[in-house]
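Dear colleagues,

As part of the handover before I leave the project, I'm documenting each prediction I ran so the next person doesn't have to rerun anything. This entry is a single chain, and its sequence is reproduced below.
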Amino acid sequence: MDSSIHRIIVIVGFISLFHSAFSAAQHRTYLRITSQEFTTLPLDIVLQAVLSLFAVMWGVLNVAGNLREIPAAAELNNIKWETQRNLPSFYIFNHRGRALACNYVPSPSKSDLDNLE
C-alpha cells in the first residue's frame, strides 16, 4: 500500500515536471511572438519545476527500498593472506642498491650454500 502511494507521487511528479518544461517552452514562444526580450522564467514555472523534481526524487528513493551498504573489501574476503600482496611482476633482484652501498656484502647464493654442506 505504502509503495503504491510513492509510485503515484513519482508519476504525478514526472507529469508536473513535464508540464513545467512545456510551460517554459510556451512562455518562450509567447515572448518571441510579442517581440519581448527573455530575461527569466516566471516564478510559478520555476517553483513547479523545483517542487516536481524534489517530489520525483523523494518518491524514487522510497520506491527503491532500503539502501544497503557496499562493503569496501568484499572481493578481498575470498583472497588468502599470503597472496594479497604477492605481485611477482614487481620483484627486482638486480638493482643499483649494491652500487650505492659501499659496505655491501653479498649474501651467499644457493650454490655456495650447497658447496658448504
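The radius of gyration is 35 Å. The mean pLDDT is 81.

All the best with the project,
I.
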